[in-house]
Structures are given as C-alpha cells and as structure tokens.
Write a structure and sequence with these properties.
Two copies of one chain form a homodimer. Chain A contains five helices and five strands, in the order H-H-H-E-E-E-E-H-E-H. In chain A, helix 1 crosses helix 2. Chain A is an alpha+beta fold and 132 residues long. The first copy, chain A, is globular, with a radius of gyration of 18 Å. In chain A, strand 3 and strand 4 form a beta hairpin. The first copy, chain A, folds into two domains: 79 residues, Orthogonal Bundle (Arc Repressor Mutant, subunit A), CATH 1.10.10; 52 residues, Dna Ligase, domain 1, CATH 3.30.1490. In chain A, the strands form two sheets. Chain A has a two-stranded antiparallel ribbon with strand order 1-2. At the A-B interface, strand 1, strand 3, helix 4, strand 5 and helix 5 of A face strand 1, strand 3, helix 4, strand 5 and helix 5 of B. Chain A binds a DNA duplex (25 and 25 nucleotides) through helix 1 and helix 3.
DNA sequence: ATACATGCAAACACTTTGCAGCACA
DNA sequence: TGTGCTGCAAAGTGTTTGCATGTAT
C-alpha cells in the first residue's frame, strides 16, 4: 500500500545529478554553492531546478536546512544534530563536533559563548495525524 | 578609558522608541513585526531605521537573531538559550521551555523529532583579540 | 559646528513561481 | 499519452545602502 505522505517524483537526469553532487558535499552548502557545483558537471541545469530539488529533499526528509541565520540558507543531507559556534562580530561559523560540551567550545576555540539556540526539527502531532 | 569595541551611538528619539517597543516583545519577532509595532506609536520612523537599530543591538550584544531558517530573521532581546521545535511539514514553530529535555519534547507535543541543530553565539578568539 | 542618524527610495540578495515545451512512466 | 519536470525570466520577499537632510553632542 502506498503511503499517503509519499511524494511522487519522477527520476530525471537533473534530479540524479543534483542529488549525487549535493550528497557529496558535507560542508552545509548554500543553494548557490550547490548550483555552482552542479554547473561544473551540467551547466544546462537551471537554478530554479536546484532549488526545487533541494526542497523536495527537505519535504521527503532526506535533507535539512541548517539555520545559521545570516545570508543564504544552508543545506545538509544528514539529519544528525549540528553544532555550530558563530561569532557575533565577524560572523564566522565554526563547526563544533557533537561530543563537544559547552565549556569545551570555549577551550577549543577561545570562543566567548554569550548564548545559544536549539532547534529541533521533525513532524508535529497534527501533521503526523494527517499522514496516518 | 573608553573601550575600543564600544559602539558609539547617539541617543535619538527613534532609537529610544524602537528599543523600548522591541524590548517589550518577547515572541522573537521578525523585523517586520517590530516595524509594525513601532509604526503604531510613531509612523514616521522608517523601516530602514528599525533594521539599523536592531543591527546595532546585535553588534552591542543586547539582541540576538534567533535562527528558525524559514522566512524572515527573528530577533530577541534576551541572550539566554532558545529552544524550538519546528515541523518539517507545516513549518509551525513550537516554543520549548529550556528545561525540556529531548524526549520531553515528543511527550509534550507529540512531536516526532528527526534531528536538531545547535548554534552557540558569542565572540570568537580573533575578535576578542582585536578588542583587547 | 560637525559628525553621526534618519527617511526615502533604489538596489541587493535570495528564493519562488508562471508558463510553454520536454521527458519519464 | 499525459502528467509531472525543466529552464527561463519575472516576480516576490526580506534586508541593506546612497544620499540629502536633520539633529544630538
């Protein structure tokens, strides 16, 4: 039985290309960065198509947006928790390995932590109800 | 002695108005929402001014952007950690009290957690060096 | 008096969408 | 064969910036 929440998609050359290239990028790229990599392989693939495919992946749950809150949205294929430390002054974003506890971030980077933000993503009760 | 990193500002009527209104909003508003509230009190204050003042506050450290990653940036006066749960399907954002541990989010909201993102903000080692 | 802040509008950056043609199932 | 996908360009959304004027210090 087909699930109601299954997203119907056709397998196109563009989709295959974008997904395989994007999947190989592990630096939470912006959509723009994905476009650039895609263009190296197939310059005929349009920007809108890349955006559309990234959004398909998010709907399907195979990609997420990583909120850094400055500039363009960042995408990642993995759904495992992400930890970042962002400088309020220069805007630089540091990757923090997930086993680093808060005090360790200061030690490792000499980073003065002033605050933090946590965002869980998933599916809310109401949407789960609609699916089942 | 004046600190090098002190941001020189003049106290203007606009700044006073925007900061006092914004400080009274505790629902991590978008800049747009702040503009609307400000306009109710003083419609002559321009949108650009609100953005500029919010950005001053971020530089000074008296406000932060809360990354929700969809739509407009959200601002908050407090720098205490924020916890949110966002539905991947409908986009709804739920506030999670900071003492709620991960499993409690599921219990409280019937929310299916698929992943998470953590962002620490503060000042990096290099910027701290420049200041001192 | 003068250097910074404001208001306006235009510019900018990022993303989505309308539409005609194309291609997968 | 037909419905969904693509590419292009235009529109949409959110934010920043240039400039002339105003104003706090």
């Amino acid at each position: 039985m087909t699930e109601k929440n299954e997203i119907k998609t056709r397998n196109t050359k563009q989709k295959e290309t974008v997904i395989s290239i994007f999947s190989a990028m592990h630096n939470h790229p912006t959509a723009e960065m994905v476009c650039n990599e895609v263009a190296k392989v197939d310059p005929t693939i349009g920007r809108a198509t890349v955006y559309r495919i990234l959004n398909y992946m998010i709907k399907k749950g195979t990609a997420i947006k990583v909120p850094i809150y400055d500039g363009a949205d960042r995408f990642d294929i993995t759904v495992k928790p992400h930890f970042h430390a962002k400088c309020r002054l220069c805007g630089k974003v540091m990757d923090v390995t997930s086993d680093m506890k808060l005090p360790k971030v200061s030690e490792a980077f000499g980073f003065d932590i002033e605050g933090g933000s946590v965002l869980y993503y998933g599916r809310c009760a109401e949407c789960l109800k609609k699916i089942n």
